[in-house]
Design a protein that fits this description.
Blueprint (H helix, E strand, L loop, with lengths): L12 H4 L2 H4 L6 E2 L31 H9 L14 E4 L1 H13 L5 E6 L4 H9 L2 E6 L10 H7 L4 E7 L11 H14 L2 E5 L21 E6 L12 E4 L3 H15 L4 H12 L1 H24 L4 E2 L8 E2 L2 E2 L1 H4 L4 H11 L2 E2 L1 E2 L10 E4 L5 H17 L4
Parallel strand pairs: 1-12, 3-4, 3-5, 5-6, 6-7
Antiparallel strand pairs: 2-8, 7-8, 9-11, 10-14, 13-14
Helix pairs in contact: 4-5, 10-13, 12-13
Length: 383
């Protein structure tokens, strides 16, 4: 009998233990979030009374796609045409579409780890052959372009990287990204660049990777920088017409089109992003300084200082690790101090690591949560 091919879905720890599943009201200091603070609708100043709740353009809101296209530059050789931008239900759907379109059981894919879980778990559900390149604290979480090139074989169909990196906040330079673009082009495989934190790059955003070559796919969303995760708005872009048509067909079969309401809100917000983004980045910079000062005072934790995004991935240092009961630490932090971080196992890492989201809580909650991490560690040391 012919073997049936089906997706082998498993729930991910990052979702099972997420604050929305635990209940936001049950967490006093929520340092798990990987986005900027959520906006309230009343603060957006939008006009929606005349919106018709109908089926809409299957590619997505034309006005929003035009604005996103303009952000890819003015050079016609590089610019992504609006019709090569597909609006999706968050970046998560974009990643799902890409994996299920390009990969089948047994197909070879190269992906870095740690990573946003969907970048790994969806290919696993397909039973693709994953070649994982593990980043290390000791190397500064650097994405090694030579390691990627060494891993590529004639069977490699897809390479997946994330810039800025989640959960570490590490960055690649423009030259390093260009090197990966060139090596994947030369070796005949697709390149996926998850650029969800693009606007949060401390030195300013790099060009979308998809502008560099037709075999490259860029993914981003409204969830992280813009503080609108509840909209479920993301997008993918590629200059490759045939590839785009496959992605487009996948979206139509999954949901026909997006939500008229979500896409209109996203469009109007993006029109006014010049009013919102500077304040968002100012707040992020201030909160990052709070985190840096706290880390500078630490005797229990060490880190590689992030270069982008709104998360950090410190770890309990070796001296403390030799004395701490890690399970007790998380139990005290959660139950006694009502404070949550993203433990390392969310990213297939040792639980000495923790992702700290510093962009979501207000300044005082961030300070309180960080101090509670220190207290919880102290109370978990084996005397």
């Amino acid at each position: 009998m012919e073997e049936l091919i089906h997706m082998k879905y498993l729930r991910m720890p990052i979702e099972i233990e997420s604050p929305e599943q635990l209940g936001y009201d049950n967490i006093e200091c929520n340092l798990t979030e990987s986005s900027y603070a959520d906006f309230k609708f009343k603060d957006l100043g939008l006009k929606l009374d005349d919106l018709v709740i109908a089926y809409i353009d299957h590619r997505g809101h034309p006005g929003l796609r035009k604005l996103l296209s303009e952000d890819t530059g003015s050079d016609p050789k590089r610019q992504i045409h609006p019709d090569h931008i597909l609006l999706t239900s968050g970046a998560a759907q974009a990643l799902f579409i890409i994996s299920t379109t390009l990969l089948e059981k047994g197909d070879e894919m190269i992906v870095i780890r740690p990573n946003y879980a969907t970048n790994i778990e969806t290919p696993r559900a397909i039973e693709a052959d994953l070649k994982i390149i593990d980043l290390t604290f000791e190397s500064g979480w650097k994405i090694d372009t030579k390691a990627i090139e060494a891993a590529i074989t004639p069977e490699t169909k897809l390479v997946s990287i994330t810039v800025p990196h989640n959960p570490t906040g590490a960055m690649m330079t423009a030259d390093e990204i260009t090197a990966v673009v060139e090596m994947t082009r030369r070796r005949g495989c697709y390149l996926l660049v998850d650029e969800t934190y693009r606007e949060m790059t401390f030195g300013g955003p790099l060009p979308y990777a998809a502008t560099l070559a037709p075999h490259v796919i860029s993914v981003a969303s409204f969830s992280k920088t813009f503080g609108l995760p509840g909209l479920r708005m993301g997008w993918l872009m590629t200059k490759n017409t045939a590839l785009f048509e496959s992605f487009f067909a996948a979206k139509e079969q999954i949901q026909i089109c997006g939500s008229a309401l979500d896409e209109e809100i996203a469009f109007q917000f993006y029109q006014k992003r010049g009013e919102f983004v500077p304040q968002i980045l100012t707040n992020l910079k201030r909160r990052f300084e709070i985190l840096k000062q706290w880390m500078g005072s630490q005797k229990y934790l060490e880190w590689v200082e992030p270069k982008g995004g709104c998360v950090a991935f410190p770890r309990i240092n070796n001296a403390t690790l030799a004395r701490i009961d890690l399970e007790k630490f998380y139990r005290i932090l959660n139950a006694e101090f009502s404070t949550h971080v993203g433990p390392g196992h969310w990213f297939e890492q040792h639980k000495r690591y923790m992702r700290i989201g510093y962009g979501w809580p207000d300044d005082e909650t961030l300070k309180k949560g960080l101090e509670r991490i220190t207290l919880a560690i102290a109370k978990s040391l084996v005397r």
